[in-house]
């Protein structure tokens, strides 16, 4: 199994350009997430999905859109890139416990990251 | 809301030294607690986790105990190695939140030979 993969690994954009980051997982996980990592701030959740065809906003969703057309893929889009979106982006996936009320022990598995620079 | 506060870095130790990285949390509900590790140029990997009070998570010589009374989950290792050099993140998740993780800011550890 490849686990969680991300495409591309690096990208440089000019302000106003658009791009899509692709996340793919081969573990049949229901839940998928997009995070951004900035120096001194840990990881912050952008958007997430609890299943095919569903998406929801996380902590910092502005300027991003997502789609989950297939269970194994989760796309993150930037319609008009801004320098503030310069960051490292991580995708993650997990398989939820059957009992929703059970303490959330599910491990999230992370991809290797995409380093994005917006000039 | 939920938040995680962990020890500021960077931390530099000599090989075989004792390691402690402090982590405290605030949470609505009953969280599960995690330590993730990020090696240079890689994504995050789960190091250990604990799901209820007084549980001890352990892996690769690292340990952390879920202390509800002090809302803490400090990471410890008795004898660090050069290969432990990485960034360590404390995190929590609560039920009913799509298992969203709330991360601390990370602590950079460098172990010198």
Structure description:
The complex is a heterodimer of chains A (119) and B (113). With 119 residues, chain A is mainly beta. In chain A, 0% of the residues lie in helices and 46% in strands. Chain A is built from no helices and 11 strands. Chain A has strands spanning 4-7, 10-13, 19-25, 31-37, 43-49, 56-57, 65-67, 73-78, 87-94, 109-110, 114-118. The model of chain B has no long low-confidence stretch (mean pLDDT 92). Chain B is mainly beta and 113 residues long. The interface between A and B is medium-sized, with 31 and 29 residues.
Condensed summary:
The complex is a heterodimer of chains A (119) and B (113). By secondary structure, chain A is mostly beta strands. Chain A is built from no helices and eleven strands.
Radius of gyration of chain B: 14 Å
Number of strands of chain A: 11
Q: Which residues of chain B sit in consecutive blocks of at least 5 with pLDDT less than 50? A: none
Radius of gyration of chain A: 14 Å
Question: What share of residues of chain B is helical?
Answer: under 10%
Give the H and E element order of chain A: EEEEEEEEEEE
Quickly count the helices of chain B. Answer: 0
Query: Which range does the strand content of chain A fall in?
Result: over 45%
Summarize the biggest pleated sheet of chain B.
6 strands, mixed
By DSSP, the count of extended strands of chain B is 12
- Could you give a short account of the major beta sheet of chain A? 7 strands, mixed
The averaged pLDDT of chain A comes out at: 90
């Amino acid at each position: 199994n490849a686990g969680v993969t991300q495409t591309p690994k690096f990208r440089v954009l000019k302000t106003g350009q658009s791009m899509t980051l692709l996340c793919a997982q081969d573990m049949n996980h229901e839940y998928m997430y997009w995070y951004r990592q900035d120096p001194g701030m840990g990881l912050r959740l952008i958007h997430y999905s609890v299943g095919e065809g569903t998406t929801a906003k996380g902590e910092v969703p502005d300027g991003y859109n997502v789609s989950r057309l297939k269970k194994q893929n989760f796309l993150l889009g930037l319609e008009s890139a801004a320098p503030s979106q310069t960051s490292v982006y991580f995708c993650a996936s997990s398989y939820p416990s059957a009992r929703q009320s059970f303490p959330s022990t599910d491990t999230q598995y992370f991809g290797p990251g995409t380093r994005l620079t917006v000039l | 809301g939920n938040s995680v506060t962990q020890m500021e870095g960077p931390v530099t130790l000599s090989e075989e030294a004792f390691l402690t990285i402090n982590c405290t949390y605030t949470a609505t509900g009953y969280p599960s607690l995690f330590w993730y590790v990020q090696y240079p140029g890689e994504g995050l990997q789960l190091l250990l986790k604990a799901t209820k009070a007084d549980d001890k998570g352990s892996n690769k010589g690292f340990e952390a105990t879920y202390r509800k009374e002090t809302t803490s989950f400090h990471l410890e290792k008795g004898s660090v190695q050069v290969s432990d050099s990485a960034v360590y993140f404390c995190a929590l998740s609560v039920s009913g939140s799509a298992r969203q993780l709330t991360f601390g800011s990370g602590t950079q550890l460098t172990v010198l030979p």
